Amino acid sequence: MKPFAYAVAEAPVQAVHQLSARPGAKFLGGGTNLVDLMRLGVESPELLVDVTRLELDRIEPTATGGILVGAGVRNSDLAADPRIRAAYPMLSQALLSGASGQLRNMATVGGNLLQRTRCVYFQDVTKPCNKREPGTGCPARTGAHRDLAILGASEHCIATHPSDFAVALAALDARVQITGPAGDRALALADLYRAPDEDPSRDTVLDPADLITAVEIPTSREAHRNSLYRKARDRASYAFAVGSVAAGLSLAPDGTISEVRIALGAVAHKPWRARRAESALTGNPATPEQFRRAAELELAAAEPLPDNAFKVELSQNLIVAALSTLAGVEEA
Amino acid sequence: MTTTDTRSQSTTSTLRLQVNGREHELALDHRTSLLDALREHLGLTGSKKGCDHGQCGACTVLLDGRRVNACLILAVTAVGREITTVEGLADGEDLHPVQQAFIDRDAFQCGYCTPGQICSAVGVLAEARSGWPSAVTPPEGGVQLDEAEVRERMSGNLCRCGAYANIVPAVLDAAAAELPAPGIETAYHEGESR
Amino acid sequence: MTVTKALTGPPLTRDEAIEKVTGKARYAYEYHSQPDTAYAWIVTSPVAKGRVLTVDADHVLRSDDVIAVLWHENAPHLGDVGDPTLAVLQSPEIAYRGQLVALVVAKTPEAAREAAAQLPVEYEELAHDVVLTPDHASLYKPEKVNPAFETDTEQGDPDRAFDASPVQLDQTYSTVALHNNPMEPHATTAIWGENGSLTLYDSNQGGGVVQQLLAGLFELEKSQVHVINPHVGGGFGSKGMPRPNVVLAAMAAKVTGRPVKLAVTRQQMFSLVGYRTPTIQRIRLGAEADGRLNAIMHEVVEQTSTVKEFAEQTAVATRMIYAAPHRRTSHRLARLDVPVPSWMRAPGECPGFYAFESAMDELAVELGVDPVELRIRNEPEVDPETGNPFSSRNLVACLREGARRFGWRSEPRAPRNHREGRWLIGAGVAASFYPTYQMPASATASVDENDHYTVDINATDIGTGARTALHQLAAEALEVPLEQVTVRIGDSDLPAAGIAGGSMGTRSWGWAVTKACRQLREEGAKSVTANTKKDIEALGEYTRGSYGAQFVEVRVNQDTGELRVPRMTGIFAAGRIVNASTARSQFIGGMTMGLSMALHEEGLIDPVFGDYANHDLASYHVAGCADVGALDIGWIEEADEHLGGAGTKGIGEIGIVGTAAAVANAVFDATGVRVRELPIHLEDVLK
Ligand SMILES: Cc1cc2nc3c(=O)[nH]c(=O)nc-3n(C[C@H](O)[C@H](O)[C@H](O)COP(=O)(O)OP(=O)(O)OC[C@H]3O[C@@H](n4cnc5c(N)ncnc54)[C@H](O)[C@@H]3O)c2cc1C
Ligand code: SF4
Ligand code: FES
Ligand code: FES
Question: How far is C600 from chain A (nearest CA, A)?
Fold first, then answer.
């Protein structure tokens, strides 16, 4: 770790200013990812601007009936919030399935969204990696890639985004509020993350001095309330997802699907909103066969590698299982 | 308070840390983790370093009563917070109920993960008292600490000696011993026999 | 409380329990934080084979905080102790990625770490080969396998007997590299005294070896080296020998004239402190229709490094576990550009039994007999390898008692037969075995004018409960209450004793302690020192070992393939159990690690870079709290007259032997999928 300066941000605008004034500066949230990466030599900021003492720690209703979550809210507080648990169970469950009790007490909403991939090459500065050092290559393709992407990857990078929380937010159509050098703006969560394409070094569309101030969760609807997050992993707890799904479902009185929301985790550079599956299902009967068909349709675009080919089936099964549970139907 | 250079050039700070009810003034490199501040600067070596990356839980301490991994916290960010380490749990000779339960259940072998397990368990009991759910908490109803709950909640503390099968009952014993404390809901209610 | 000699001793709490739960117990890195203490940081090689050309020490020495940089051109010369892994910084050769190439010493840990990261090192890089294959060109037959067993054995005519057998099984099983990962990383605090003496607070499984080898390396008298290790945060074999950290810390302290602290980082532990070799094991079983074995063949391929040979004794226990007239076992090593493999909990038996006990399960399926019954039918009368009688052998009792307690269905396997919701449920069984070893030790018992007894022995408690067990044995032999006895261990100034390894620690030390205490009592002396060398030599010709049976329930999710183990039963026959509580902890610890091996642990060798790609605890998973269900532990009370000493066998390793097979066998029972490669991943059972 290189020596660095440290400053406590007093207001969002000032924090943004501190970052734009100093290209080597970074915001510090809970530090659970940034400090880790600094210790590995992956990140080496000259200045850390601590944004945890900004008053971004509130969870409050919005005028339109949604919920606004401050970027500094700790993952554990958000997961335990009774409004979130009741109105957006998938969100609480996604948070609780991530990391450990200790880490969730530290991790902030903003930091969680911007945590970086767990690709082992990215984390090892003695090895090449396009994401860490553009142009050096992607050893994961022929190396350890079991945990990496099957959808939307590029020849330059097959990293996955590790956040569970972001998967649920993607399914909920949450929006991210940002204060940047040019002022305030908001982005759909789906538009926050990028595909790796030619430049995997950038995970998101944000400018380095953009401060996430809040996440806005839309007004709760049936497909938010009747929702769940299901995560498959190699340990029963304290492990990143091998595959995951955030799903919400509402049925019309005739039993057909009136609304369905599906996002997949651990399959792409970003939370993967399963729009194809959603549109194939909407208006159709809520049966395991329909779920399977839609899941297969969604995963048809998958381009797996030898060691992660199983994720195609795993993701399909997760979709079918989650929707079957939400619809209250039995799988064969 | 921290005296940080407002132009943000200095890479060290003089700061005060509140640890186990005592205040300490330290001049620290910003890189110093809370864990190293405790271990190398304050001689509080009870908190352990098993990985230095948030991956084992050996460094667990309580920050304003909440369990956290001291290895991923920069000491400079802990200013103004109340830090409790394993050394601060007992009341003189009287062990904390979690400490006693760990002894009674032989919930450790080498002891290296133990301070972290114990601090984590103290945090777990407080979280359960506050009604915080875990990944295995059913959506309806309060929090009832049982084996499945404790296993899930204690998963951020690895024990290579494999004492989990003793740690879980130890935490449950401590939860039962703590019952009179306000607000905690467990599977066992006063007046009921088991 | 007076302890009386019972086959199962009372479940007393650990002597050091309060220290451990209050944070007062000090480990190796926790001794010296004086103003002049320096911190050392290891620099490792990013190339897997080649040599160090130059190190630009000046580049980092510009910092005021950096005190010294050591590398092969300026490091002090070390004496030759015959262990190339300890000849640190003596040559430019690089034999594996992650080998240490330099050491930075600085005033703060932060500065040391950063200087180590920035240190410019130039390398000459050569092509490397790190992938173990069953037909690797470098395969050779080692002279012996660990510690001194015959490499190959053959009895009768196994090929012909196999061919003639009505039921045949021929399968290959493999295990991956496993990393010991004790929670306390290997660490040392080293201080040189003015008189040229060296004090080492070191994390190890035996201070005596450290003392001896460090004396050799630094060309000192043994008495000049003082090794102190009252508490050790686990080792599981990886701290059985001195590791580079202790040599480097001593070197750095010598060069800088300051106390030096050094801890191996978790990441570095994947290359610097040993690991379990991957194995490829071909097993052939030839049986009669009733299940009696005619032929057993167990041929093992494993890896070693180019710097030092380590040959795991993977198939050795196959030589005696079941009866069969025709048998062959063999071990072949591939010499690869990999880190040096070494001991990990039950080296040999652990991977060997995974393969062998999986094969037995497959044979039971093939024959349509209950796997418990199959094992009982092949129970030998005498040791099939040596013809020696068994001092005691209670495998059958363990199997029967375990089956009863577990609720085992005594019938042929019918896989994929039991489900609850989306979960397939299965049960599996495997046998466990671990040989009983012993090493000579000395202990001193003395009494003061207040009738307080002190027992001294350089034993090491790495979490086994040895301190407490020795205390109990001492009180028993002295026939006084525990409170009247103090046991002192973990210091090389105390009478010499062997390491905590091979499950022989408490057995060997307990023997010496018991002997010294009995003599003291009988002779009414003030102080007695006893040594057990002669007693051990006088042991009769028996095959001694601990046995066990493990039963496991597995649940497999039909949607995700996720594997869960809600319960395990382990029944052991391990001689006298000195402390029921700490012994139980040893068994659950072993079984938990066995479960971890079966489902989680996987050292992934990276063919391109040559290292273990997943070198941290987030990517190399060990079982966590939520992975372990209910553990039911029991033992068969065993009075074995041929054990000598305190009548104990060993309990530290047997718990891990067989667990992985029981899990894999249960996975088969649940799913019908036979996984022959560990660990079992969810994708292996995703239909
Ligand atoms: C062992 C381990 C296991 C884990 N397991 C899981 C898991 O299973 N699932 C999961 O989802 N996560 C997991 N995590 C990751 C964890 O959730 C993240 O590290 C955490 O959410 C990051 O939040 P933070 O506040 O600590 O971020 P920091 O580390 O403080 O910051 C992360 C990044 O975000 C930037 N940043 C922080 N706040 C803001 C802001 N307001 N605006 C703009 N930029 C900001 C920082 O500059 C930095 O680049 C695990 C982590 C560890 C160490
Ligand atoms: S997958 Fe992406 S992060 Fe991983 S090595 Fe390739 S470029 Fe780097
Ligand atoms: S040392 Fe902090 S989690 Fe391992
Ligand atoms: S007691 Fe040794 S690691 Fe937990």
Answer: 7
- Ligand 4 environment, Cβ below 6 A: B 108-114, 159-161, 163; C 183, 234, 463
Read off the pLDDT of residues B54-110 as tens digits, 9 standing for 90 and up: 999 999 999 999 999 999 999 999 999 999 999 999 999 999 999 999 999 999 999
C334 pLDDT more than 90 = yes
| C545: enclosing H helix or E strand | strand C545-557
Domain spans, chain C: 31-127+183-234+239-272, 153-178+275-436+544-685, 437-537
Chain B's closest residue to A230, CA to CA, is: B135
Give a yes or no: residue A144 inside a domain. no
Residues A211/A199, Cβ–Cβ less than 8 Å: no
Q: State in Å: Cα C49 to ligand 4 middle.
A: 35
Q: Does this chain's domain C153-178+275-436+544-685 share its CATH topology with C437-537?
A: yes
Task: Name the residue facing C23 among B49, B87, B165 (closest C-beta).
Answer: B87
CB neighbour list of residue C325: distance below 8 Å, 6 or more residues apart: C155, C156, C161, C294, C295
CATH of domain C153-178+275-436+544-685: 3.30.365.10
Q: Which residue CA neighbors atom 3 of ligand 3 most closely?
A: B54
**Shared domain check, B103 and B73:** no
The interaxial angle of helices C659-671 and C580-599, nearest 10 deg, is 50
Say if residues A242 and A233 touch (Cβ distance below 8 Å).
yes
Among B76, B123, B158, select the one facing A101 at the smallest CB separation.
B123
Q: Do C231 and B47 touch (CB under 8 A)?
A: no
Structural domains of chain A, count: 2
Range of the structural domain that residue B149 is part of: 97-186
Contact between chains at A100 and B57 (C-beta distance less than 8 A): yes
State ipTM: 0.97
- Summarised one tens digit per residue, pLDDT across range C166-180 is 999 999 999 999 999
The DSSP call for residue A24 is T
Nearest of C243, C262, C257, C251 to residue C218 by alpha carbon:
C251
What's the pLDDT score for residue B190? 33
Q: How far apart are CA A206 and CA A71, in angstroms?
A: 15
Q: Spell out a b/e string for B8-26, using b for 16 or more CB atoms within 10 Å of the CB, else e.
A: bebbbbebebbbbeeebee
Question: Could B132 and A52 be called an inter-chain contact, meaning their C-beta atoms sit closer than 8 Å?
Answer: no
Mutational pocket test of ligand 2: of A37, A127, A131, the residue with most ligand atoms within 8 Å of the beta carbon: A131
C255-295 confidence digits (pLDDT tens): 999 999 999 999 999 999 999 999 999 999 999 999 999 99
DSSP state of B65: T
Specify the residue with its C-alpha closest to ligand 1, atom 17. A112
The neighbours of chain C, by the rule of 3 or more Cβ pairs under 8 Å, are A, B
Q: Tell me the chain B residues in contact with residue C263 when contact means C-beta distances shorter than 8 Å.
A: 49
Distance from CA of B1 to the nearest CA of C (A): 23
- Residue A291's nearest CA partner among A234, A251, A233 is A251
Q: Are C572 and C652 in contact (CB under 8 A)?
A: no
- In angstroms, the Cα distances linking A299 to A157, A292, A312, C428 are 19, 11, 6, 36
What's the CA gap between C685 and C152, in Å, rounded? 35
Chain B residues within 8 A of A92 when measuring between CB atoms: 133
The residues of C carrying an active-site annotation are 653
β-pairing, B22-29 with C38-44? Answer: unpaired
Q: Is the CB of A131 under 6 A from ligand 2?
A: yes
What is the structure's pLDDT at B139? 84
- Cβ contact, residue pair B165, C21, below 8 Å: no
Note whether A52 contacts B77, CB cutoff 8 Å: yes
Rounded-to-integer distance, Cα C657 and Cα B18, Å: 48
